[in-house]
Amino acid sequence: MATSARPLSSVTLALCLSVLGTGAGCRSAPPVDPTLVPPAWVSTPPTEPGYLYATGSWPRTLDMQDAKDRAVEQARAELARSISVKVQTVIRDWQSNTTSAFGASGLSREYTEAVSKSLSDTVLNGSEVREIWTDREGRAGPAGTVYALVRMRTSQAVQSAQQTTQTLAEQKGGDPSSRQAVKQLGAELEKLK
After folding, report:
1. What is the pTM of this model?
2. Which secondary-structure segment (H or E) carries 128?
3. Per CATH, the architecture of 39-190 is what?
4. Could you say which of 12, 20, 46, 127 would form a disulfide bridge with 152 (CB–CB 3.0 to 4.6 Å)?
5. Cβ atoms within 10 Å of 19's Cβ, excluding its own
């Protein structure tokens, strides 16, 4: 004798589907670990009035502390380069508009080298490490890369450049036109703050 198949009731069908759904991949994805997501500053350093920011990175090494230290060094070197470019642009603009002996092109190279050295020292001693992040999964670059974010007050960089300007002017004899030129350059450097 043949038995006929009975249609499933809507309640039975709903029960079967809900049991299948809970065990067959209908779960939500696990939450993403926030330490795995690259911070925004890794690709774009922040901007904040009165501060200059820079980032640096270093690939994975056997010694994680060494990688962190190197990433910070790279960030500080980038910060010094960035500040130096800004200050040297002000200096070049100022020198093209001045007639003093201090602004003469012969001093340009000596002066910009002195300012660059001074700014490098200032950045090394005056910058602060804001964050360090390790890219464990390679989401921003190669896996294991360490990223560092450093910042420095703009006023520190300007003060360093002004002190170097004053020292160099005094070494060159401190004639009245040089003293006036130092004041003018100081005023231009203040605009960077």
Report:
1. 0.72
2. strand 128-135
3. Roll (3.10)
4. 127
5. 10
In the chain, what are the domain boundaries? 39-190
d(Cα 27, Cα 34) in Å, to the nearest integer? Answer: 21
Distant-in-sequence contacts of 128-136, Cβ < 8 A, 24+ apart: 128/152, 129/72, 129/75, 130/41, 130/53, 131/39, 131/41, 132/68, 132/71, 132/72, 133/38, 133/39, 133/42, 134/64, 134/67, 135/38, 135/42, 136/35, 136/36
CB 177 within 8 A of CB 103: no
CB 51 within 8 A of CB 130: no
Question: What is 148-172 written as a DSSP string?
Answer: EEEEEEHHHHHHHHHHHHHHHHHHT
First vs last C-alpha separation in the chain: 97
